[in-house]
Structure formats: C-alpha cells, structure tokens
Amino acid sequence: MRVAVLNKHDFVEMRMLFLDVFTNEPWFDKWSSEEQLNAYMRDLTENTNSLSLALYDENDVLIGCSLGYVFNWWEGREYFIKEFFVSRKEQNQGVGSAFLELMDSKLKANGMKYITLNTEKNVPAYRFYQKNRFSVSSDSVFMVKRLSE
C-alpha cells in the first residue's frame, strides 16, 4: 500500500468510493442530488488549502481517502480531516490504521504538527480513532447552530 496526493484522474473513483462507504451502514447518508455531491467534493478537494490523500493498494487501485485542509496555526501546520474513508471491502482488516500510519509519516515530512478531526461518539469511527492515538480534546467542543428555513 502507498499514500499519495489524490490524482485528479481518480476523482470519479474517489467519489464513487465515498458514496459506497457513506450511503451504507452505519452512516446511511442520503446523497440524492448529484449537483450537491459534486459541489461538496469540489469544496473538499479544490480549495487552496485542500489536501486530499489517497491510499492505493499494491495494484494501484484506490481503496481509501482522507480529504481535508491544511491550516497554519501559531503552533505550526495542522491537517484537519473532513472525510476519512476506506473501501467497505477493506474495513476491519487493519487497512484504515495502516493508512493513518502512512499518513503520519507523509504529513510529518511536510511539516505538519497535528492532525485534527470531528466525529460522532455513537459510531464505530469514534473507537477507531481512539485506537489510533487520537484523543478527545478537553479544551474544545464542536458546536452547531441550525438556521431556520
């Protein structure tokens, strides 16, 4: 397996992988609008501070992605993961953990000091991230304000 910046030629495959992972258990996202999905994917991959990392298997098949942003902070550069996903066929086999380890090396080599992310406590991803040395920050809280329609 190898980690590289997502090849633009793999955008359609990445989008299909994203849909397969997140429209199934435990997420059940309802991406009914192709236009909305494409806008979301462009938001994640086409900003000046976007960093889209891909996990390729030994046959150079895309099997995972980490889509996020790089921010400069007083303590150094930070990679914020907005979406992290691995092919459902590869899940529960250590592939996601291996992906994170490979990412660590690549990010450190590019001057990153931190990896940050948000996830829900009631999904398997929460335990997965804890197992991979992510910790809950006692100094931060994720807040949401729904705007009425």
Automatic annotation (TrEMBL):
Matches recorded under Pfam families: Acetyltransf_1
PROSITE patterns cross-referenced by the UniProt entry: GNAT (PS51186)
Name of the protein in question: N-acetyltransferase domain-containing protein
Species assigned in the record: Shouchella lehensis G1
Residue ranges annotated for the N-acetyltransferase domain, each copy included: 1-148
InterPro entries membership: Acyl_CoA_acyltransferase, GNAT_dom
Record GO terms (molecular function): acyltransferase activity, transferring groups other than amino-acyl groups
